[in-house]
Amino acid sequence: MAEVLRGLSAQIESMQKTIDSQHVTICQINRTSQGHLKEIRDLKRMLKKKDKENEELRKRLSKYEEPPKNSGNSSTPPSKEQMRDEIVRRTKSLRKPSGRKPGGQPGHDGSTLELNDSVDNTIDKKSDICDECGEPLAGCDTELDYITQIISLPELKPQVTEVRHYVTICRVCGKRVKSHFERRRSNAVVYDASVKGLVVYLSTVQFLPYNRIASFFKEVFGLEISQGSMVNWINEAKKAAAPAIEKIKEYIMQSSVVGFDESGCYCNKRLDWAWIAQT
Q1: What are the angstrom distances between the C-alpha of 18 and each of 5, 120, 185?
Q2: pLDDT digit string (tens) for 206-248?
Q3: Percent of the chain beyond pLDDT 90?
Q4: Is 239 left (phi over 0), alpha (psi -120 to 50) or beta?
Q5: Residue 213, Cβ neighbours under 10 Å: how many?
Q6: Residues with Cβ < 8 Å from 228, sequence gap 6 or more?
Q7: What is the CA radius of gyration of the chain?
Q8: What is the pLDDT of residues 79-124, one digit of tens each?
């Protein structure tokens, strides 16, 4: 029995040594594996960093290898461009010097203003004295030599019309009959449609700011118009044009083909955009 126990004890001791040796080996393998895993994680982080640096370098290099995309060489709309690039593109001329002198070129078909059939004033120019003998030419026969028409603007002077409203007293019943149904409650001096229409045209068609429109009327016509009045007139015109605008919208919506465009407008150092739909 003692012999058997000694043998079992020896076997157990041998197995314990084997287990200890295997445990040391496993710990070494684990440490080595953890080191490898750490190295793998470090390599992944380095690769990710290198990929990011590579992408940034590619973007920087593309600026020199390819022209920047804009509304002229891609489908990028102008509203997506930087204001600086958009300004350069609009102001930079694509024309190249031809080496020719300015003006009409040889063989070019010129255009001349034709005489107008409807004239407002006629001036007859005749000689009074004969440049050969010095005799007066009054009563002598004349014949037309040639015609020159001069086109000029009308006198830029506002026409002031004073409207006097009277009250007429009926001789039968004594009723005081006014010339108007309701008395005008605004200022005694008003502007008519010709002034308002020109303001609306200069603002909405020519895109002139209010201060320049006011300067134009003051310097050319001698009229001082407030910017508040201009805003009111433009709003009135917008309201009056609403039915026509709705009709245009209907035509566009019913059209089988519609063209779209956008137009930029600089205001207070900011680029605003108007989107246009048209048939």
Answers
A1: 20, 127, 116
A2: 989 999 999 999 999 889 999 999 999 999 999 999 999 999 9
A3: 22
A4: alpha
A5: 20
A6: none
A7: 46
A8: 677 666 666 666 666 667 777 777 667 776 666 778 888 888 898 8
Owner of token pair 């014949």: 143
In the numeric block, the tokens 């990929």 are attached to: 51
Q: What are the DSSP calls for the chain, one per residue? A: -HHHHHHHHHHHHHHHHHHHHHHHHHHHHHHHHHHHHHHHHHHHHHHHHHHHHHHHHHHHHHHHHSPPP-TTTSS--GGGS-HHHHHHHHHS-------PPSSPPTT-----PPPPS--S-------SB-TTT--B-TT-------------PPP--PPP------EEEPTTT--EEESSSS---S-SS---HHHHHHHHHHHHTS---HHHHHHHIIIII-----HHHHHHHHHHHHHHTHHHHHHHHHHHHH-S--EEEEEEEEETTEEEEEEEEE-
pLDDT score, position 216? 94
- CB neighbour burial string for 174-184, b if at least 16 within 10 angstroms, e if fewer: eeeeeeeeeee
Q: Which residues contact 258 (CB under 8 A, 6 or more apart)?
A: 252, 277, 278, 279
Which phi and psi angles does 77 have, rounded to 5°? -70, 155
Phi and psi at 277, nearest 5°, equal: -115, 135
What the block records as the tokens of 17 is 């040594």
75-107: buried (b, 16+ CB within 10 Å) or exposed (e) per residue?
Answer: eeebeebeeeebeeeeeeeeeeeeeeeeeeeee
Cα(232)–Cα(229) distance, rounded to whole angstroms?
A: 5
